[in-house]
């Protein structure tokens, strides 16, 4: 019997920088960006404490182009994806380890005017296959 596993991440937060959109040598769009999520609690003295976590995200193909066109630093978004670990050698030959979220779905939570929440419907929604899967999914875009 084959074992089943799940690798799923759901985040709501704000972009920490403008996305970087680039294209692979074969012409595939890829967008890299960071997102901040936060939590707050009261310590034993009753003081409010806050902690921010930073997440590296990557989107591929049509979803990458949407990210590059519509998102900017400070944009509030809902993200679904999976955790990916990878390694590479930097320019100095040093091995670097990267942990990132590969984005499969994205909901823009800011209004197009740049402020406030939408009334129950996001500004855009898109589904994107993971880089390694060859399956072509249809984008689910309202425009």
Structure explained in plain terms:
- With 143 residues, the chain is mostly beta strands.
- The chain has one domain (9-36, 50-127): Beta Barrel (OB fold (Dihydrolipoamide Acetyltransferase, E2P)).
- The protein is built from one helix and seven strands; from the N terminus they run E-E-E-E-H-E-E-E.
- The chain has a five-stranded mixed β-barrel.
- The N and C termini lie far apart (43 Å).
- The model is unreliable at 113-143 (pLDDT under 50).
Feature tags:
single chain, 143 residues, mainly beta, OB fold (Dihydrolipoamide Acetyltransferase, E2P), 7 strands
Q: State the order of secondary-structure elements, H for helix, E for strand.
A: EEEEHEEE
**What is the level 1 CATH name?**
Mainly Beta
Approximate strand percentage: over 45%
Secondary structure tally, helices: 1
* CATH architecture level-2 label: Beta Barrel
Low-confidence spans: 113-143
Count of strand segments: 7
Count structural domains. 1
């Amino acid at each position: 019997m084959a074992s089943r596993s799940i690798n799923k991440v759901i985040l709501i937060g704000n972009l920490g920088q403008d996305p970087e959109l680039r294209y692979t040598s074969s012409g595939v769009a890829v967008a890299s960006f960071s997102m901040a999520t936060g939590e707050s609690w009261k310590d034993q003295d009753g003081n409010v404490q806050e902690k921010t976590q930073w997440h590296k995200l990557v989107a591929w193909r049509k979803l990458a182009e949407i990210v590059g066109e519509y998102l900017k630093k400070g944009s509030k978004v809902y993200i679904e994806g999976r955790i990916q670990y990878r390694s590479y050698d930097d320019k100095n030959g040093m091995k670097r380890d990267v942990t990132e979220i590969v984005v499969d779905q994205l909901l823009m939570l800011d209004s197009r005017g740049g402020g406030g929440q939408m009334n129950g419907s996001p500004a855009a929604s898109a589904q994107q296959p993971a880089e390694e899967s060859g399956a072509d999914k249809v984008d689910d875009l309202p425009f």
